[in-house]
């Protein structure tokens, strides 16, 4: 979807969050000089186009007890990675799953799956289930745990 | 910089949990959206707004509002990583975080120990952000653009 000038102003007004006001769309509209109805209509259109993934809260994993956040990475045979990536993405503990380029020799992995657990043992059990699914197509693997959140702001446009 | 672990999470009560589980998506595009959610949680609109404000202040929630997807605006999200010398880590984190295009940045345990996402409206802007980071740090930025997305849906149950 191509954003017009109003869409862009709306993204800028909402990207750090909606106001905690009983009528948040009125507040945003007042800021932009447009009606609340137009704010809602534009957000609905952006949501339908996937520009807005969802509207809601973003929890801090750590504060919710998800202290083990593992980026599991896998070197999977090229001719099998798409079928297997779809299957890995369907596992209920996988939140994000992508194919990405390898950067040999430092980085042989082409499949990334994010998993979240209350302990590293839980993440390792989840990774073992992924390994089982990948079977003989799997060549090498690793788990990169996050130890600090350095920044988490989401998209910012100017 | 926030420590991710082992910072103790503030205790969540039952209402906090229901609020977080209910509000990760589907915030309505209506005149009084908080009222609509509060009804489902058996809270008053005022109680919901107060509680939401507290969870944001305590950093249990990192944000509240629309989550935008740069990919669908003709833009890009690119995962990237650097191998940062430990002695310079904090300083380089500041340089990377200072780029407005950097949406997330995590320390991970690996030779590639800094992993960040650049979200930009155009591929050119993303590339410029990478070039600025490389020029300012003297380090190579390994780009891991997604080639296929198999699954994205983060909903944490608490």
Could you please describe the fold and organization of this structure?
With 158 residues, chain A is of the alpha+beta class. Chain A has 2 domains: 5-48, Arc Repressor Mutant, subunit A; 62-145, 2-Layer Sandwich (Alpha-Beta Plaits). Chain A is built from 5 helices and 5 strands; from the N terminus they run H-H-H-E-E-H-E-E-H-E. In chain A, helix 2 (24-32) packs across helix 3. The longest helix of chain A has 15 residues, at 120-134. Chain A starts with a helix and ends in a 6-residue tail after the last strand. Chain B has 158 residues and is α+β, with helices and mostly antiparallel strands. Chain B has 2 domains: 14-57, no CATH class; 70-145, 2-Layer Sandwich (Alpha-Beta Plaits), CATH 3.30.70.3460. Helices cover 35% and strands 25% of the residues of chain B. Chain B contains 5 helices and 7 strands; from the N terminus they run βαααββαββαββ. In chain B, strands 4-5-3-6 form a 4-stranded antiparallel beta sheet. In chain B, helix 2 (33-41) packs across helix 3 (45-57). The longest helix of chain B is centred in the C-terminal third of the chain and has 15 residues, at 123-137. Chain B is elongated and about 55 Å long. Strand 3 of chain A pairs antiparallel with strand 7 (148-152) of chain B.
């Amino acid at each position: 979807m191509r954003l017009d000038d109003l869409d862009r102003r709306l993204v800028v007004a909402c990207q750090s969050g909606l106001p905690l006001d009983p009528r948040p769309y009125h507040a945003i509209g007042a800021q932009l000089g447009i009606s609340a109805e137009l704010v809602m209509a534009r957000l609905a259109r952006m949501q339908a186009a996937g520009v807005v993934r969802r509207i809601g809260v973003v929890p801090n994993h750590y504060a919710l007890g998800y202290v083990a956040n593992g980026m599991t990475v896998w070197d999977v045979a090229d001719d099998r990675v798409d079928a297997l990536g779809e299957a890995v993405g369907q596992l209920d503990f996988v939140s994000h799953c992508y194919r990405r380029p390898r950067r040999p020799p430092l980085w042989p992995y082409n499949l990334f799956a994010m998993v979240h657990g209350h302990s590293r043992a839980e993440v390792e059990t989840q990774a073992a289930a992924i390994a089982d699914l990948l079977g003989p197509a799997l060549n090498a693997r690793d788990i990169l745990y996050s130890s600090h959140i350095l920044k988490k702001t989401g998209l910012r446009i100017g | 910089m926030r420590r991710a672990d082992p910072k103790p999470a503030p205790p969540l009560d039952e209402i906090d949990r229901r609020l977080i589980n209910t509000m990760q998506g589907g915030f309505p595009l209506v005149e009084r959206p908080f009222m609509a959610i509060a009804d489902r949680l058996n809270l008053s609109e005022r109680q919901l707004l107060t509680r939401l404000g507290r969870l944001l202040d305590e950093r249990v929630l990192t944000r509240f509002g629309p989550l935008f997807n740069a990919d669908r605006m003709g833009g890009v999200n690119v995962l990237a990583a650097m191998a940062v010398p430990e002695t310079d880590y904090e300083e380089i984190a500041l340089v990377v975080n200072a780029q407005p295009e950097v949406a997330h940045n995590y320390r991970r345990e690996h030779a590639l120990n800094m992993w960040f996402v650049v979200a930009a409206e155009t591929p050119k802007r993303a590339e410029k952000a990478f070039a600025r980071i490389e020029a300012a740090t003297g380090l190579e930025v390994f780009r891991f653009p997604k080639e296929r997305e198999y699954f994205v849906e983060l909903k944490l149950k608490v």
